[in-house]
Amino acid sequence: MAQQTAQVTAPVAIDAVHGFRYQVTDVARTAAFYTERLGFTLEFQQLPAFASVSLGGVDIFLSGPGASGSRPMPNGERQEPGGWNRLVLKVADLPASIAALEVAGVTFRNAMEVGPSGRQIQIEDPDGNLIELFEPTARS
Hints:
Elements: E1 20-23, H1 27-38, E2 41-46, E3 50-55, E4 58-63, E5 86-90, H2 94-103, E6 107-108, E7 113-115, E8 118-124, E9 130-136
Parallel strand pairs: 1-4, 5-9
Antiparallel strand pairs: 2-3, 3-4, 6-8, 7-8, 8-9
């Protein structure tokens, strides 16, 4: 039996994380959610297809049905909002953040969870894309 050796190749040269892309159905509505409810800054928009919002050096690209980043795959599969992958946003006071977002009518996927490294909760943007709010445990 011949022994096979794995070929080692160099990793792709990645310069930086450019941002996150979320598929959305209404770009203006979802950009307003991120700016008005979560404190993001609107960086660019070309309605109705696309908007970019940012917070702390991280960009989220909101791609509507007409955006190049939303086109169907070669096999015809459509890119849709939602799922379980998520952006994690660090907050200083999770219970206060939850209370403010409840008043604002934000949709929650779960109740606050507590773990060894902090506490978290999952919320949805208007298209069902998941966002996690995370408050790290204070370390001595």
